[in-house]
Amino acid sequence: MMIERKEQANVQWFAVQTYSGYENKVKNNLEQRIASMNAEDKIFRVLVPMEDVVVVKDGKSKQMSRKLFPSYVLVEMIMDDQSWYVVRHTPGVTGFVGAGAHPLPLSDEEVRDVLVKVGELEAETPQIVVECQVGDSVRVKSGPFVGAVGVVSDVNTSTGKVKFVLSVFGRETEAEVNHTELERV
Question: What is the pLDDT of residue 6?
Answer without folding.
Answer: 39
